[in-house]
Structure formats: C-alpha cells, structure tokens
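Contributing new records

If you add data, match the layout below exactly. Sequence lines come first and carry their own label; structure lines follow with theirs. Keep one chain per record. Anything else will be rejected by the validation script.
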Amino acid sequence: MEFSLIVPVHNREKHLINLLKGVRNATMQPSEILIINMGSSLNLTGFDSLPIQILQSPISKSGYLPLARARNQGAEAAKYETLFFLDVDCIPSASYFDMMNGHLEANTGLIMGTPKYLMQPVQDGFNEKSLNDSSINHPYRPVVEGCALSTDPGLFWSLCFAIRKSLFNEIGGFDEKYSGYGAEDTDLSFSIRDKEYDFFISDAIVYHQQHAVHSPPFDKFDQIVENSKVFYKKWGIWPMGHWLQSFSEYNLIDWAPHYKKIDVLKAPSDEHIKSSYKPKAPFV
C-alpha cells in the first residue's frame, strides 16, 4: 500500500527525530515522507533509509506559523492518493498506519487516530511498551473501539489523521484564511460535513510528546481571536469557546457564546503570559 506522510515542523527537531523513529518501526511504511519545515534547518542524520523530502514553508510577516498553508503544501506535493498527516509531536504506534489504512479503505471520509498523552519526556531508548506505560488517554476525549462514526466535527484535531487526496482537494484542503494557531482543523471537519462526507475516530494510537504550552494560551491571544472571527463568519458558531471564555473571564475580551462579535478590551499582560507557561504539559 502506497501512501504519503505529511509532517509540518517548526524548530522541534528532537520531537521530529522521535516521530521518525516511530515511523521506522511501523509495520507499514510510507512511500514518501514530506516534512514541511517552517523553521531552522534540520539535521536528520541516521534516517537515510526513510524516503524523506524536506519542503520549506516560510513564515508570514505576522510571525504566525502558516499551519494551514504548510499542510496544503504537503498535500499538493504528495504523489499518492492516500494522505497521512502527523503533527511533529506525535510518535506513531507500530500498527498505526496499518490500522488507519484499513479503516480508510472501509470508510469514505475523514479519519482521525487516537492520541495518548505522554506524562514524561521521551527517553532516547524508548520502545512502544515504555510509551504505552507512560501515557494516558485525554480525559475529555471519547475512547473508541475500531473505527467509530462521529457526529461531532468539533472532536476533530489535525494532529493525527488520514484522508484521500481526491477528497482533500474536493473540500479545498485547509482554509488558508486562518493564520497561526486555532480553528483551521475544526474548519476542515465542518467542510467534510458540509459536503456530506463522514468523520470517523479510529482506535489507532499515536503517542503525543510533551512540550511547553501556555494555558490559557495568552501567547496566542491575537491568533485565537482573529481565527475565531473567521470561523464565525463562515459557519455561524464560535470555535475554541473554552479559550474565548477564559479570555472573557480575564476581561481581555467582551464576548459570550450568544454574541455575534468579539470586542477586544486589552491585550494579555506579560504577567498573564508568564503565569500561564507550562514547560512540560501533556495536554491543555
């Protein structure tokens, strides 16, 4: 089975190396690995056996990561009809590609895998047992068996999913009006539903590596507000409501779920950003 693996990355070389170690141990291998690099140069010595291509995706003048554009760039360059997308902080389990491919062959639509969240940093000599033993399911995500149809497009996260290239192109890929963090993945699943295709959640596992985050994400305040506005204009509902609610509670925005607009009252302070920093969060 031939498929393309697309991995956007921005200055997380160690995470990427761990991801590639997982790929190398997988029971089904990608026919090509398209790394969409949005940061500094990468040193991937030791992975010559993998069919890696590195494509550059420059950051816009705003400084926001062009995540939607990077994923679309990967899909455009892909040679194969079956597309797998992994975020750089994910390590695929050995059976991940095999299981996801079987589910994709049996179902037409968008299929997301199941992330398990590592509670400690990945050790150099990791194996799948060590990853499984030190990871947990997300407490607010559904646990499925097999490949389960979901009626909630809001459950889709783009960190681990598969789709046919023809369907990806039919829905227009990721909407590049979203700039930086937030809502571009929810928009994709809404587009799938709008075209009357299905969204599934598979029990195929990836292991999510810890990395520094802000919770609430005050560091991405402008991106979240602007992308929420884009999403609301397009779909008539607000995405990322929990983050918008947090910003409202801190009196940064005037907003409520029934409002039709967001009014920015003030930007987060340096203290907001400092106090929200979590250096080793498993998830937010």
